[in-house]
Amino acid sequence: MSNELMIADARRRHVDAKAKRLETVGSVIPVDWDRAVEAAWPTIWGAYRCGLPGGWVDLVLAFSEHLAEIAPLVWVEDSKEKYGGMRVDLTGDLTEEAQALAEVYESLSEHVCQDCGEPGRLREDRAWYATLCDRHAVVREPT
Q1: 3-class DSSP state for residue 21?
Q2: Which whole-number Å values give the CA distances from 142 to 70, 81, 125, in the listed order?
Q3: What is the pTM for the complete model shown?
Q4: Are strands 128-132 and 121-125 parallel, antiparallel or unpaired?
Q5: How many angstroms separate the CA atoms of 87 and 103, rounded?
Q6: Which of 91, 86, 123 is nearest to 106 (CA)?
Q7: What is the per-residue pLDDT across 53-100, written as a single tens digit (0 to 9) for each?
Q8: E-assigned strand segments in 17-135
Q9: 122-132 exposure pattern, b = at least 16 Cβ within 10 A, e = fewer
Q10: d(Cα 124, Cα 111) in Å, to the nearest integer?
């Protein structure tokens, strides 16, 4: 799959995951969302705790489903927010396509508020980096 098609597919999956979450649990992101992701995708997250901000829940759901389809023998070795973006380290029977997929979702995370999941942008102030919507940027702005 070309990179452009992978990006378009990832965006569509992200939108679909968000719509499904809004339909089932509403706009409030459950506190235990990470445990639900780990339970839904045990082969991907089972050995590792998902350590990502709640605003990226829909990205994580879309990524997990997408990864399971293209690389069923790959799992997450580490996940974190770094410099305001999602970072996912993969292991297992790693393919170029699986690595490219992780990079696509990492890139998408820089446009999704890590606090609420709404559109956001990467913000920085000295050593402080976060991807936030305008509303959460005001709340988290360093002094």
Answers
A1: helix
A2: 41, 18, 8
A3: 0.90
A4: antiparallel
A5: 8
A6: 86
A7: 999 999 999 999 999 999 999 999 999 999 999 999 999 999 999 999
A8: 74-82, 85-92, 121-125, 128-132
A9: ebeeeeeebbb
A10: 14
